[in-house]
Structure formats: C-alpha cells, structure tokens
C-alpha cells in the first residue's frame, strides 16, 4: 500500500518505518528541511532501540523516503497518517493548530479518495474538526479515521510490530477495509483490531493513559502509607498484583511518572471533562500525587544531612524519565536537581543516553560525568532517579570507596534492603523500611 506520514517526530518516524517494514511504500513529510535532509541521508533523528536497523534497511531498499513537500508526499497515497505535535495550550487542552492546518492544506491538494488518519493523541471531537477542515476546501470523497498509538518509548518498535490491540475509529466501511488490510500483518498472533466510532477511539487513548497514571499514583500513595505503617510495598505489590483483576504490571512505586504522554494526557482529559461540565476528581488527585512524588526523596535526604544541604555535593544516576530513552520531558531527576541546587548543594550527574539533552537545558548549573563511577567522586551521597539496567548490579565497593558517606537514596527501588544492610549502607527507597547507618 502507498502511505504518507505527515510529521517525522517520534510517533511519525516509528509509524513510517514499521509500515515500510511490512512492505508498504512510505513517504514521510516534514516542514523541517534539515531534518528531512538528515533522514534522507540515512541519519536517524531519534533514539529508539531497534529502530535504526529497520530505518536503514527500508531506506536502502527504497520503501521509505522523506520530503518537505506535502503535495509530492501525498500524491499517490491511499492512507495519510497525521503524526503532528499537539502541545498543551495555556489552559491544558491540546493545541490542534498543526493538525488542522495540515488538514486544511490537504483539502486543497487531494486529487482522489484518501483515508486520513489521526495518529496524534487528540481530544474527543478532533476527527470531526479534521473532517470539517478538509471538507472546506475539497469536493473529493475522503474518510477521517482515529487510530491512536499506544507506543512506549524504549520498546516502541515492538509495541508497533506486535500491538496488544489496534484501535480504529471510523463508521466508514470503505475506510475500515483499508485500515484492516494495512494492520493485518501486525495482528497475526490474534490480538484484536477493535473497530469503533471516532469519538470512542479518541477517548480510548486518554482513558488508557490516565488509567495507567492512576495505577502509578495509587501505588505511590500505598508506598507512602507503607512507610508510615511499617509495611513493605514490594510485598503489597506482589500481594495485590497476583489478582488477575489488578494485574502485575504498572504497580511499581517510584518518584513519579514523567515523559511526553502521561502528564500531558491526564491534564488534557481533566480539561476535556471540565469543558463537558464534569469534574474528573480522581485525575485531579492523580496529578497532585504525582507532582509531590517527584520530590519524595528530598525530605529523606535533608533529614540525613540534618536539614542543611548547603555546600553538600551529590552524585545523581539517571536523568531520563525512564530507562532506554534520552527523553527528559517531565523527568523527576530535573525536579530533584532544581530542589538540591536551591538548597545550596552541587550535583554531578550520569545518564547513559540523556546527558546531551540535559546539558542543553541546564548547561553548567550542574557537572556531567563520563562514567557512572566517575560521577561519585567527592559526593556526599548517591541519588538514583532512573532504573537503567547498568545501575542494577553496581560495584558497591567502588561506590563506597568514592562516596564520603555510605548513603544511597534510591527513587526506583533497585536494591534489596537486606543486602544494603549487609553492605553497611544507609539506604532509603520508596515504600520500604530503610537501612539506617
Ligand atoms: C506511555 C504509555 O505506556 C504508552 O502506551 C503511550 O502511548 C505513551 O505513554 P511512555 O511514556 O513511553 O508510554 O512510558 P511508560 O513505560 O508507560 O512509563 C511512563 C511513566 O510511568 C514513566 O515515568 C515510568 O517511570 C512510570 N512508571 C511506569 C512507574 O512509575 N511505575 C510503573 O509501574 C510503571
């Protein structure tokens, strides 16, 4: 099938590459000429495990190409995916101007029937708006479909190639047939393609992310309660997770969710609810809990240093909002750094992928280490903010040889408390009884 993907950001590039991988002919369109040049010459613009290999192969074999011209890009396309940014506006609702501008332009240049697919996460009612934006300039028949993505950063290729489900929102039989054919290779193991109306598809995406964010905030509150009552959140997590109705996944407490999706989508659903004259009480609490959770470790750190962080120096492992990505959007580490610096402390950081992005934002406010152990030199304590695999079984002798105090504040519960006790560490984590020096 001939496909166009408009927008070569994270979602667009993964979508385009994965559709090329199943033999489709994919053209990606972006207004950013330097990005298009880079991509055309084989330089990938995002970090996503497994993507580069597919990108290079499909580019080489001619199934994947890039252009800045929307008109050239869509000429032969049967399906056009809109994977454009929908940043939160000042009031928290998604800004649709990129999507609607492209839709209006498409209306002017389309020459035959096309299926236009909203791939970006967009509020309920957007398919209607996109339809209207195209129709104002266009007499040719077309269908607009809502097909939300459920990609997790770090495993996006796998999520795309083997989705738990594919949600397709359209009442048009013609569009359902086209979309069903396009996705057939991805659901051969038997996972469902769920056809529904546009609005239900749009809401499904927000409901899924908001539900997952709720699970996390719920567990973060259980962790707080565990500490107060002397229980262990790992036990409680296992105890509840083995009930199929609850499920084992997404029950890990930590220092809050971040990234480009959860914070934005929860906020947008709260806003959509308000617009529909309904106060979504649970989600307001989810956001509130998450904001506070980002600084969960701070009182513990302050208590250890007798409420005076002035002149203290900290090593911080992990900057990305989660492992296997260089994404630092809403990353808890950044909030911790700000708070430490505001208290007069200095910070040296290490992250396997995200340091260039942090340098861009924080510059010389902090120092950057080339290695996770070099990060520890002269530090008063180690703070862990992201659960990268390389942090999971560190050389504890190296750590204690460098740190001034044998103190680790772990926002991701990487180590067994009993082991840390044996090693003689002051070890504080989330929702577990600490090992005290
Ligand atoms: C998420 C959704 O999973 C995905 O379906 C959607 O399309 C986009 O948003 P992503 O933001 O890439 O994907 O990350 P995810 O792996 O879901 O983690 C989100 C956040 O939740 C991270 O900050 C992570 O640290 C946190 N988290 C996750 C927890 O704190 N505890 C958990 O048990 C799971």
Number of separate helices = 17
Beta-strand content: 5-15%
CATH fold field value of the largest domain = Rossmann fold
Bound molecules: uridine-5'-diphosphate-xylopyranose
Report on the biggest sheet.
Answer: 6 strands, parallel
Helical proportion, percent range: 40-55%
* Total beta strand runs: 14
Structural class per helix/strand content? alpha/beta
Instruction: Name the strands of the widest sheet in spatial order.
Output: 3-2-1-4-5-6
For the residues shown, what is the average pLDDT?
A: 96
* CATH architectural name of the largest domain: 3-Layer(aba) Sandwich
Shape: elongated
N-to-C terminal Cα separation, in Å?
64 Å
Number of domains: 3
- List segments where confidence is low: pLDDT < 50 over at least 5 consecutive residues: none
The name of the CATH superfamily of the largest domain reads: NAD(P)-binding Rossmann-like Domain
> At the first level of CATH, what is the class of the largest domain?
Alpha Beta
Radius of gyration: 24 Å
Active site: 261 (nucleophile)
Pathway: Nucleotide-sugar biosynthesis; UDP-alpha-D-glucuronate biosynthesis; UDP-alpha-D-glucuronate from UDP-alpha-D-glucose: step 1/1
Domain UDP-glucose/GDP-mannose dehydrogenase C-terminal: 315-417
Catalytic activity: UDP-alpha-D-glucose + 2 NAD(+) + H2O = UDP-alpha-D-glucuronate + 2 NADH + 3 H(+)
């Amino acid at each position: 099938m001939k496909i166009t993907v408009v927008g070569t950001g994270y979602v667009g590039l993964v979508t385009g590459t994965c559709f090329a991988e199943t033999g489709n002919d994919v053209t990606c369109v972006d207004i950013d000429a330097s990005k298009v040049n880079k991509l055309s010459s084989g330089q990938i613009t995002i970090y996503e495990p497994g993507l580069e290999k597919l990108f290079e192969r499909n580019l080489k074999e001619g199934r994947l190409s890039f252009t800045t011209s929307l008109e050239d890009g869509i000429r032969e396309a049967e399906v056009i995916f809109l994977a454009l940014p929908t940043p939160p506006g000042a009031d928290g609702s998604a800004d649709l101007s990129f999507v609607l501008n492209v839709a209006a332009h498409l209306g002017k240049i389309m020459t035959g029937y096309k299926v236009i697919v909203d791939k970006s996460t967009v509020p309920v009612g957007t398919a209607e708006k996109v339809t209207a934006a195209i129709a104002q300039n266009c007499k040719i028949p077309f269908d607009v479909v809502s097909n939300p993505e459920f990609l997790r950063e770090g495993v996006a290729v796998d999520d795309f190639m083997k989705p738990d489900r594919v949600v397709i929102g359209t009442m048009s039989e013609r569009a359902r047939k086209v979309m069903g054919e396009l996705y057939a290779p991805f659901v051969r193991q038997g996972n469902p393609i769920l056809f529904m109306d546009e609005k239900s598809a749009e809401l499904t995406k927000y409901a899924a992310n908001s539900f997952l964010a709720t699970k996390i905030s719920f567990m973060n509150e259980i962790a707080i309660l565990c500490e107060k009552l002397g229980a262990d959140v790992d036990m409680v997590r296992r105890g509840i997770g083995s009930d199929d109705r609850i499920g084992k996944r997404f029950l890990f407490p930590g220092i809050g969710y971040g990234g480009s999706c959860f914070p934005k989508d929860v906020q947008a659903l709260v806003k959509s609810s308000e617009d529909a004259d309904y106060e979504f009480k649970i989600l307001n609490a989810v956001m509130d809990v998450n904001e506070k959770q980002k600084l969960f470790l701070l009182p513990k750190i302050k208590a250890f240093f007798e409420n005076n962080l002035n002149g203290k120096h900290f090593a911080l492992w992990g900057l990305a909002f989660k492992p296997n990505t260089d994404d630092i959007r809403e990353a808890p580490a950044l909030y911790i750094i700000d708070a430490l610096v505001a208290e007069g402390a200095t910070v040296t950081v290490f992250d396997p992928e995200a340091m260039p992005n942090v340098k861009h934002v924080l510059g010389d406010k902090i120092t950057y280490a080339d290695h996770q152990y070099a990060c520890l030199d002269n530090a008063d304590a180690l703070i862990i903010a992201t659960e990268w695999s390389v942090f999971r079984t560190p050389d504890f002798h190296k750590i204690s040889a460098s740190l001034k105090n044998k103190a680790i504040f772990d926002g991701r519960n990487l180590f067994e408390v009993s082991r840390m006790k044996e090693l003689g560490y002051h070890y504080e984590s989330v929702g577990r009884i600490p090992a005290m020096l």
